[in-house]
């Protein structure tokens, strides 16, 4: 992995910022005509999200994104709306902004559940493939409504269908516990269900949103609790802007990792309407970014997502992160995020963490810095469950533990390898909170910034 301060050649991998959950005017609302009973409802463009595809893409570039996915959700006959109207706008935006890798996809209306980002590879078949998937499996596609389309078993069928394409799409679960009824409780989706998704199509289902969108939501007269809370999480709040599945130490994310899954987390805007115009959202890239280590081309960005070469950050807290772990004396290449490293109980691990905070003000007008970085470890013993009690903070690093190297800060550490397979991951914050606190309605999201790395995997031998 290139050093954080280097500027690699255009054909080499580097950190690319993106957002895989962005809505346009084609996330329509639907209105039935009382004078035409029995006829499909009419889509009202701009009814649920306000901005054209091109404007979303332009704002993504303005806020430093290198890639974006246009993801509209559906309704009766929406697959044809996507085909006839959204697709040409994506093509036009690609032509207007050739320096942005713009993927075509949708916020898939999950059978038996809520939503997931569907990202299609950029190729000659993408327009037809999306229509096939949405027409065949989108739970809201049929008119009249067909309850047989809205079952969890149907989602497994959909995933298996997606997996059969020569270059399959990617599915990322969106706002995983937004429908939860309390801490440690789940709503429409459980960790076990996500495990079933992954088992059905491991090259399609890669992870979940760690930091959901709608982070600019604020209490307003006439709104319920959910619509005035960060992320629109009314049943169980986000913690430091992150879903409880991720932010709870030893929680659901660690539970999935402990089962041996490669499970990547991301961060998005879920942009529908900007906060300055009465919405609950930031523009793509304005607040949250998903960083992928890849070449600036679609296929390698998708490979980076699948491989877990990913970290996420809010509020511009960091814009580079190198995290490598080496087995001292083994001769192995050091493992980076998404990689595996063979270890045994006699192995000593040498780790390097290199991060960079931007020297310029973020979109909120502040120049921010990292208060501390946590090195987190967990065992991967294959046991099923919604949590991982082996997860622990191995060490907390503060400014006394890192050294300046150009524009970056470097931390080096040593630790013995665990006796069993496991993983190491990082978490950092602009705050001095030992654990991310539950978010309260009306708080300023710019004062509560976090980053998370995806894991380095340790394989016991």
From TrEMBL:
Source superkingdom: Bacteria
UniProt name for this protein: Phosphoesterase
InterPro entries recorded: Pol/histidinol_Pase-like
Phylogenetic classification of the source organism: Bacteria, Pseudomonadati, Pseudomonadota, Alphaproteobacteria, Sphingomonadales
